[in-house]
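Weekly sync notes, structure subgroup
Attendees: PM, AL, DS (notes)

Item 1: joint prediction request from the bench team. They want all two components modeled as one assembly rather than separately. Inputs as received:
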Amino acid sequence: MGDTYDTSQYISIFLSEAEDQLEKIEQALLELEKESDNKEVLNEMFRYFHTLKGSSAAMGFTLMSEVAHKGENILDKIRKGEMEVTSDIVDLMFECLDTLNAMKDMIENGEEPVMDVDELLEKLEKAASGTPSSSTDKKEKEEVKEEQKEEPQERSFEGDIGIELNEYDKLVLEEAEQKGLNIYYIEVTLSSETLMKAVRAFMVFNKLKEMGEVVKSVPDASDLEAEKFDRDFKLIFISKEDKDVVYKAIANISEIERVEIKPLKAKEAISGKGSQPLEEKTVPKEETKKEQDVKKVEKTAQTQPKAAKDKAQAKPQKKQEHTIRVSIEKLDVLLNLVGELVIDRSKLAQIGEILEARYKESEISDELRDTVSHIERIANDLQENIMKARMLPIGQLFSRFPRMMRDLSRKMGKKINFIMSGEDTELDRTVIEEMGDLLIHLLRNAVDHGIEPEEERIAKGKDPVGTIKLSARHEESHIIIEIEDDGGGIDPEKIKEAAIRKGFATPEELSRLSDEEIINFIFLPGFSSAKKVTDVSGRGVGLDAVKDGIERLKGQIEVESVPGKGSKFILKLPLTLAIIKALLVEAINITFAIPLISVEEIIRIKNEEIPSRVKMVKGHRVIKLRGMVLPLVSMGEIFDMEDKEKDPDRMLIVVVKADQRKLGIIVDELIGGQDVVIKSLGAYLGKGRLFGKIPGLAGSTILGSGKVALILDIATLVKDIEKKTRRE
Amino acid sequence: MGARILIVDDAAFMRMMIKNILTSNGYEVVGEAENGLQAVEKYKELKPDLVTMDITMPEMDGIAAVKEIKKIDPNARIIMCSAMGQQSMVIEAIQAGAKDFIVKPFNPQRVLEAVEKALS
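Output from the run, pasted for the record:
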């Protein structure tokens, strides 16, 4: 029982790590393409390939490990300067990455990651060996490979020890020799699979410290600590112990592949084999530097072991995020429970009020009020923190776009500068998940329809390279995502043409619409202004699908466009789908919640003004608001129920907006703003898309009083009213 | 061979992983503990030849546990089980007297190498 459980747990860790690594590799590759000599990026990518190779092998995914290994070889060559970063190599590395990703996906789906990778492996090998021809020279290749393998181990120990010594070191060594201590030159190579190399190096230092003094190391202690070394480091060490003892002590540390120890005479170390010959002492330049050097060396030499000790103290100063992985379901359950708590909290507050009114003098009601307000604070904090725990930076989603844009720009032959910003903007996981496809669609659209072909841009006097910007930011309790291109923009005239041609509107109708409203035609189902269908944007699923998706997320999409200058799609989304800010109103004896995102304003009209302001047009009430005609509708009309107009002394209208269209909803009472937890209406009422049986409802919520409030779905309401008025 | 080992980790599946690796190679797992406090208690009780010690645990973390165990038995042999990115904590543990460390996810070869070397 335990066994299968274990493996699956193990796999999930492997997978989430692999996913992370593959993502980082992708980012690194994109950077490398721009900046082929960026050593840091190269090293980083090498490391990821390396880790992936190791962990996939540990999991028994040998094929995956082999692909990673071949990729690592190429990176190693580039790192050593034996190979150049060409666009072909980058393409090949991308191919390698795609294969690894595919294998990861297979593992994720519970399949064995077995696929035909012979071709890829051969290509990788060919690239690594630098021989362009194919299988005929396989032998040669093998030889080359062997040579590579031998190379690192074969590094000669004889000759130059490559450790620079200065006055202080020399002094220390000479003194040591006088005292009859042994001086050793030590070379340590860590095994290639070593994780946490810095710690291994520390362990070597730690061990040596017990037996003597490390005078010098290459790389120096701080570089070792920062893992700024490959696999080897060199030391000069003074000890009274025998060579064998020292050797054994180091060799007994795990993951040490090789230790070489050579006794040195002080003179040898200082002059003969040191890379800084004695003569140089007389060079004036050295002399001037001496003082400085000695100071520095004092620090290194005396505190070598201490420097290592400092690691432990220095490291925690760096910001370390301690994380654990928690399953999403657990968070969802927690959020649900908090939702219940929030409801009870309000209920408790109401009970408190009643009790307070009833037993005014009693102390106990004071205490109850205090407790209730405390619970309220805690429940609020709890809700906020759980919401935060569900938040992810949108960068997780954005991170896959640079690659996609690169591929698209290559495919379309359009040069594009893709700029992202606001990657650390956080929003709810569920929203992020749903956003992926929508953003892909909009980005493709920007490349395909937005950015003009290069010749056209040049002809227009624009920068031949198009710019597409993707940004995210918070605005109150919403997130705004913008996709902006500096392409041709949307021409309202072309939209008009298409609208007439496709029978969406008559010229007469169009003449009454503003440019803004006309541009919004692009969101209508079946409306596509592109003359040509390309395989990038495709046909059928158009912007209407994007709009639908965004509305399902309780968000809004708008477009701003200047012909010739470019377009900007603005997405406004709630931070979460679980809780919304709503305006509570009462009408037809029911409490309704109107999502605050759609509320524009609230108008009060005194009774005596009603006849002069409210007009009837084609049997529907309308009101003139700042020169615009606003259709009015009552809840009774929406839900086919009888309006019980309580002869109020005023008319209350909540103006809502969706799709650039406004609608006034007549209500009896305003109750106030509140965070409400959305509850689904269930399968029966909620059947079909968007609660098909009762259009206009997005769900329900339970209020503190225990009463149920219905949450309005403004987008469909506006659409419905529009349809009705058109028909008539 | 046949050394007696105490496994300390708050995750049951991690304990199971290590246990499988060790027992299938002839070691005897004499006990398991799921936090530092338990580890110290079990150490006193069982006097194992070797302890594998997770770092991040509730109640008492692995580093504190190493320090406690070392107080009881200065010759205790402890191997730290670390996740990636816990360098500084591993160093602290080694300063406190841990013999070696292994990094999750575990590679059986590495686990065995560490155990062998720590016992030698």
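Discussion: Chain A has a mean pLDDT of 75.
Action: AL to compare against the crosslinking data before next sync.
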